[in-house]
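Customer ticket, subject: "Can you confirm the structure for HEAT repeat-containing protein 6?"

Message body: Hello, I'm evaluating your service for our small team and ran a test protein. I'd like someone to confirm that this is what the system normally returns, since I don't have a reference to compare against.
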Amino acid sequence: MSASVGVSAPVFDRPAVPAFPSTALSAEAAPFSPGESDCSPLDSLSDAEKQFSRCAAKLRALRPDCSQLREELNQLFDQLLSENYNRSCELPITIRPEDVCVLLKHTSGLVPLNQEHLVVKFCQLVHHLLNQLKVIMDEQTLDVLVKYTVNALKQCSTWTHSDVLLALSTVMYGNGSQCHQLVSDLLREDGVILQYSSPSQPNIELRHVALTCMANICLRIPGQPLLDDQYRSLCFRLFLKTLQSPKPPNTDDLFYCMVIQAALKGLQFCLSGGKWKFGGGEELGSVLAALKRLMFQGAPGLSVDWPEVIYPAPLSQYESLSPPRPTEPPKTLETPKEADKTGKTSGVDDREEEDREAVPEVCGDGGDGSRNDVESLAKQPASFLYPFWKLNSSESEFSDIEGNAQSKLRVYQCRVRQLALHCMLAVVKAVEKRTLYGYWSSFIPDSPAGGPPSLTLLTIILKDPSPKVRLCALQVLSAILDGSRQFLAAAEDTASPRTSYTPFSFMLAAAVRELHRGLSLALLAETSSQTLTQVTKCLAFLVANAPYHRLRPGLLSQLWKQIRPYVRHRDVTVRGSVLRLYGAIVTAQAPLPEVQLLLQQPENLGGGSISGSVTPQDSALSWRHRTPAAFSQQNSSTHSPQLPHTPREEEKSSPWLLKLCVSLVTQPREEQSDSEGAGGSGALEPSPVRLEALQVLSHLVRGYFPLAQSSLYEIGQLSVRCLEETDPSIQLHSAKLLEEFGAGIIQQYRAENSVPDNYKVPVNQVVEFWLEVLSGPLNAALQNEQHPTLQASACDTLASILPQAFAQLPDKTQLMCITVLLGLTYIENYLVKTAAVRALGVYILFPCLREDVMFVADTANIILAALDDRSTNVRAKAAWSLGNLTDTLIINMQNVGVDFQEELSDMLLLKMLQAATRAAADRDKVKCNAVRALGNLLHFLRHSQMTRPVFQRPLEDAVRALVKTVQSEAAMKVRWNACYALGNAFRNSSLPLETAPWSQDAFSALCHVVTSCKNFKVRIKSAAALAVPAQRSCYGDTKRFSCVWRSLATALENSEDAVDFLEYRYSASLRHTLSEALLHLLSLGTLQDMPELSASLAGEEGRVIREHLFKYLKAEEGEGKTGEDEAGEERNCGEESGQLQQRLGRLQEALVRLKSLKAEEEGGEQEKDMVVNFLEDLLKICEEF
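Agent reply: Thanks for trying us out. I re-ran your input and got the following:
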């Protein structure tokens, strides 16, 4: 057999060596992590290198025809195998990988396959050197060693195959995709690897090594391609079959755990780095069933009949618990005496918990009782709420030999559970969210009304004795919850539950509540800082995706109070993750009434008292020696004493969370945390905590600005202080905070928000705020070329200044802002250029700047240059800014008049028209604003400009670009804007619609989309565009006019035929616009148009038109409103009456005009009378109604 050199397969445990340290399981992890060993002193390390060099020189000097070859090889192999080359020592070995490759290639030619003892030692040497030195082989060495080991498997005896396969697995680690031909030979049906890895293989050691070899073949190193799908599928089926197979009789439990570990590792490698390609629901259900069973491998007191396949279902699938045998007492691992002491170790320290993981002890009542407490916590005393891993005893009922075997078995079973959860994580990442959603009920509890409790991920999180297994379960749950908003959106329990059946929405809501409850328990009980961090991260994923506006209030309030003490946890990562959770709470469906109430509570109420949240970690949370009362007193220098507040005072006081974050960013901590190392007193919080606090402030300002606006001065001071620091991350987040605060002020002053003046931040305070910011370090951040992201964020900050406040800034400050932005557009970095161009696009709309012709011209030239940039993002923002600039042109044309049009250069307008036309052929993100700009420019052009020859071709190209966009298969937003742009162009009375050759194409395109486009918003804008021309001559001859009429009538008749149900909410707005367009055409019709109009109104089509026109005239159709607008908004009666009279007035004007039409020739009078009668009947019905 092989020599006892203490080797093991990569990343898999062997009983001959100490257990490997637990490490993160991923393809990116460092390969071949060996067992822990004492680092040799300096002289030993030096001797090891010398030994390698000496032996390598001797081996390279040997030739196959040497007389003493066998003895020399034996001696040199033993010497090389006896050394420790582990690079984890303090002074790493400096042996070059190329020397190892040369040595192994040369030695492989010295060891004949008929000398099996030498073959075994050489294979051990291959594993030993490659594993400990972590050598990355060149292609030639890889080819030589793979061929040698494959030939050894074919020619050598079976007793050598264990070591040969071990060497082969080491050589193939991550190299499977590079050995296509050899992999096909190794994995053929009659090959040695498949034979040895089969569940029918009696030799458990060979089976383990063969599975390890297959797993390493499937492993993909980052940067390399995946193994061919056919081989991955073959290995996948074998790994799954291994996991599904029962333990062979008379097999040692430790060896069987090693086999399962190898299969799990291989399954993880198959799933990592790609999408699920291993069959349909049956295969996925089989994998999930096997992994779920192994997640509970070695769980104490658990007897479950596990299903072989899990099927997708909205209802929970309960594993059937095997009935207990009454004739035998339950076998517990804890004596009654120990049960009395179970509560004594609940406050175990993090380090003690980690040390005891190698020999985890379990509670004797870990069977049904340990699960029932998860399901019925509300009925149990407080001491029963702790997971059973918190109630361990330090005693043991085993003898030394038995206890050692049992503890080792528990370690191996713990490793199985950990690997099963890592496999589950790979499945979650590989399978589509929609597909995985059907299996949620098997892994997430939903508080069943009756029946046995389900075994879910929460069971592991609350019950597993290993903190690393609990950490893995939390990672899996986090991955499941991440991106689940669309699936949880249906959850609702605001209504009373029905007694006859449980709605699916109520079940989803129950699952959300159960997740809250379980994770809250884990938060209370967890002592491992790393696992506690993951608990808070998992809660953040849950909060970010759950629809709290559809759930009964209370969940966030309880969580808010519970996480309050952890802000002062000794571990910096825990503090950072808790702040991230606070950020998720204030972001969830903001503004949420429940969170608003929490923010308005005084510090000494609700979430402000630690005494109301007694946790096992309270002793660890006092490292700051600050109670909430002390925290309040610390801030008393800047806030009034704690007195009873009136409601009005409460509204003006800053939220507790805001003051906490400001304190964490600016105030020094009083004492050092255990995880931060040495540092002087008075030091600020670590950078991660301060960054999280700044992000929470940004979320708070964005979602709950009315509560944060009272802290205008504090936030300004905080931002200025942070911008003065040297850490660019702190500067960046403070700039983003300023941007959010500026955006909140701008939202208050928007007319559509209708915020009362006494609730707005006064303009004079806004001016003072920005004067302080702009006179401080923000200017330095704008010019910090070493950090482009900071420059870009500073540009966004400048763009968030309230226009009314900007107008009151000193002239030199305004000039500084404009000059800096103009200069930053010449920076090569695309982030800076994008932000600067966007900021100019914001400034061009400021009333105090938009009438400045020079500023408009300078901005236009900057935008034109940016439209030719190679970065798509720059071009997209340039197109957006060009759209804003052309909006400004229209506003100035309406407010200032011809004077502004004449001052603007014709050549600049021509360049803008040509640039927008080119941009209309760009990508959709550029095109959507380019067509908007084209519509504005065509509306802005004067008749004198259109008649100039230099404008003739660009004008035609611009219109044709809009027509092409309307007819294209571009994004609906692009087509919507193109239709709007054509309507905008039609508003220019100087546009030659009746004679231009492109006019027919424009009307044809609009008529086509108004009847056939599946998107109703595109139809609405096309109908609105067709109703824009104010003169009958603009519609061309009778044929074109009739085509427009028929298209609008057909569209009205089909206005309820929505292909996509989501479009149905726009049908009322579509009918309103179509009715308005038809009435507009009726008011413009001539006698030549009457035959077509009368024919349309006389038949069934006329009945439909009359019905919809009546609804339009009576204001029964929503004017430009979506379904939600109509359902959630009450109309003002006065406005409705005015609209009704205005519409009836237009109808009467059309009727009068039609009656006044005189026939120049015979004919047409009869058709005119029919149209007049139609309108008179319609008017009569409206007046009677």
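A couple of notes from the result: DSSP finds 57 helices and two strands in the chain. Strands lie at 304-305, 320-321. Feel free to reply with more questions.
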